[in-house]
Amino acid sequence: MGYARTSRISEEMKKVLGQMISKGEIKDPRINSLMSITNVDVTSDLSYAYIYISVFGSNAQESLKGLNKAKGYIRKELGRRVKLRHTPELIFKIDDSIEKGIKMSKLINEVNKKEEDSNE
Q1: So what's the pLDDT on residue 2?
Q2: Domain limits, the chain
Q3: DSSP H or E segment with residue 3
């Protein structure tokens, strides 16, 4: 029962955060529209929300700093829009799963190419 609730809250927070970023509601210049929210994990007691971001380009650390600086505003807006009695503490993290996936894909391609070369 609790899992469904936290899952719904996570999805709603992800949607609202994505809208805030895409519409430029967060005024920090380090946060741009090339950032996306890949996942939001809310703890079962709703005290923390782990927000995973992916940034196109190489300025992920700067975007993370901008989000942390605007954390108070973001939390206030999330509480208002998602209508939670207690808004979780926000913890922003960089989601590097896309880069890891690309790296793994390259390694697999290299192994396959070496295998093809040795079979010829």
Answers
A1: 58
A2: 2-119
A3: helix 2-22
